[in-house]
């Protein structure tokens, strides 16, 4: 679900400045995620536990009551912060040619993704590719091309994704100058069944 206008120009500028500072603590990741079918991770990341130590702005935005009320209205039930300090708010940066966030589903029901930087054109890669209500990651990686959906985003864009049942990935960057920097906020709901995979600890721990 696209959320145009969620980030104001002033809000985007403030988050960019904060993330520019946080990026200095981020770590490069380059591996295949075994629990997600061996899909690649070629990216630089920072987990929520470090963000919470370094930033007031990001945790305050994550738990903002107006934001939670807004998200609850969109999903039709109460959006709740997650208890996991690693996964609740993370920073994902694709900044080298070939960087990609391979096929996966998330541990929590909803992901709010906010773009601080993004490739200018779809041809530069960094596209969200997804299959809603996927039975497995194969629906995305080996399923019918007609079932896959693709979205290009620009800096300042945001979207809300049902991320535990939607198989999704970010396509590789195709130019060395391209960058894709996002803040990802994970939320749950009162009736959500607990789910845990090793993926978050591997990527952000």
CATH topology heading: Jelly Rolls
User: Mean pLDDT, rounded to whole units?
Assistant: 95
Which structural class do the helices and strands define?
Answer: alpha+beta
What is the number of beta strands? Answer: 11
User: Cα-atom Rg, whole angstroms?
Assistant: 16 Å
Query: Could you tell me how far the N terminus lies from the C terminus, measured between alpha carbons in angstroms?
Result: 29 Å
Q: Tell me what the CATH architecture is.
A: Sandwich
CA-based shape: globular
Helix content: 10-25%
Report the CATH superfamily: q2cbj1_9rhob like domain
CATH class identity:
Mainly Beta
Order of helices and strands: HEEHHHEEEEEHEEEEH
Question: Could you give a short account of the major beta sheet?
Answer: 11 strands, antiparallel
Which spans of ≥5 residues are poorly predicted at pLDDT below 50?
Answer: none
- Which percent range describes the beta-strand content? 25-35%
């Amino acid at each position: 679900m696209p959320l145009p206008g969620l980030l104001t120009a002033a809000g985007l500028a403030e988050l960019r400045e904060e993330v520019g500072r946080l990026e200095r603590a981020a770590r490069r990741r380059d591996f295949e995620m075994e629990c997600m079918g061996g899909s690649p991770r070629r990216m630089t990341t920072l987990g929520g536990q470090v963000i919470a130590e370094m930033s007031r702005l990001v945790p305050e935005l994550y738990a903002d009551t107006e934001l939670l009320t807004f998200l609850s209205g969109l999903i039709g039930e109460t959006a709740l912060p997650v208890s996991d300090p690693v996964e609740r708010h993370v920073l994902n940066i694709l900044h080298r040619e070939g960087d990609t966030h391979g096929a996966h589903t998330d541990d929590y029901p909803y992901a709010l993704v906010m773009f601080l930087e993004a490739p200018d054109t779809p041809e530069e890669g960094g596209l969200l590719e997804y299959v809603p209500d996927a039975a497995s990651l194969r629906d995305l990686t080996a399923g019918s091309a007609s079932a896959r959906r693709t979205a290009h985003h620009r800096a300042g864009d945001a979207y809300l994704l049902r991320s535990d049942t939607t198989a999704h990935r970010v396509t590789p960057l195709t130019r060395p100058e391209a960058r894709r920097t996002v803040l990802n906020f994970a939320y749950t709901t009162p009736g959500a069944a607990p789910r845990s995979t090793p993926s978050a600890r591997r990527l952000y721990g």
